[in-house]
Amino acid sequence: MSYSFNDKCIDCDKCASHCSAGAIIVHRDASPIYCEIDTDLCVSCGHCGNICEKGAVLDAKGKPAKHIPKSKWKSPSINLEKCSGCMICVEACPEFALAISKPRAQGDINTFAFLAQTENCMGCGMCADRCPVKAIKMV
């Protein structure tokens, strides 16, 4: 189940402009204007709830998603001993915030994921959810 809106939505479109999945549709041609979440595109990352200051976003359980100031968003902490450098987390990140380290020397296979674009991370945790070796924790 994906996120949805309640009647507190003022159709400001902040959530739509920040949705990496492109799941939020603003129906500007309707009267009144309204927002809708495409359940086929929504990845339930919670970013819309982080952005909404009105409390208009309901999480997948139907409870109001909390507005969290950006300074308090979680970010990935990667255990380099566990990380295999498989790139699954990099591909899962909707904001392209993660990268894989360069090999230290020719033939080095000990690469690892790292947070390359701190400002892009929205704290959704998709990287941690998809990590097959559980090397990523959101802190």
Q: Treating each run of at least 4 consecutive H or I residues as one helix, how many helices?
A: 4
What is the top-level CATH class of the largest domain? Alpha Beta
Shape: elongated
**Overall number of strands:** 8
> Which stretches are low in confidence, meaning pLDDT under 50 for 5 or more residues running?
none
- Pattern of helices and strands: EHEEHEEHEEHE
Radius of gyration: 17 Å
CATH architecture of the largest domain: 2-Layer Sandwich
Q: For the largest beta sheet, what order do the strands appear in spatially?
A: 1-4
Report how far apart the termini are.
25 Å
Q: Strand pairing plus helix content: what structural class?
A: alpha+beta
Mean pLDDT: 89
Q: Specify the biggest β-sheet.
A: 2 strands, antiparallel
The overall number of domains is 2
Sheet-strand content, in percent, reads: 15-25%
Give structural attributes.
two-stranded antiparallel sheet; 14% helix; elongated; single chain; Alpha-Beta Plaits
What does this structure look like?
With 139 residues, this protein is an alpha+beta fold. The chain folds into two domains: 4-58, Alpha-Beta Plaits (2-Layer Sandwich), CATH 3.30.70.20; 73-138, 2-Layer Sandwich (Alpha-Beta Plaits), CATH 3.30.70. It has four helices and eight strands. The protein has helices at residues 14-18, 47-51, 88-92, 126-130, and strands at residues 4-5, 24-27, 34-37, 57-58, 76-78, 98-100, 113-115, 136-138. It has a two-stranded antiparallel ribbon with strand order 1-4. Strands 2-3 form a two-stranded antiparallel sheet. Strands 5-8 form a two-stranded antiparallel ribbon. The longest helix has 5 residues, at 14-18. The protein is elongated. The model has no long low-confidence stretch (mean pLDDT 89).
